[in-house]
Task: structure prediction
Amino acid sequence: MPRVKRGTTHVKRRKNVLSKTKGMMWGRKNKIKLAKTATIKAGAHARTGRKLKKRTNRNLMTTRVNAAAREAGTTYSKLIAALKDRKIELDRKVLSEIAMHHPEVFKKIIAE
Result:
């Protein structure tokens, strides 16, 4: 079997790993062994962070709708139940945007 020199492949693979760890501290930015583990862990933590971001944003939307509903004289749960009874299909994200940026429209929705 002929000898295979892996110069370009080896360099390219290392370069890709090190580009992902750019900005990290200490040896993780320039030592390949540490950089590999750092990229794996960073990817896992990034996925967790994306899921947490969705969770916190959903909580924030609910809080905004609840605050606007209480200003209008009702509660969040009563508002959502009334919207479902009337077949008004606005999700919580849209409701929170309306409550935050267009309070007069939100009051009309509650009146309906």
Remarks:
- Residues 32-71 form the longest helix (40 residues).
- The domain at 8-111 is CATH 1.10.1900.20 (c-terminal domain of poly(a) binding protein).
- The mean pLDDT is 93.
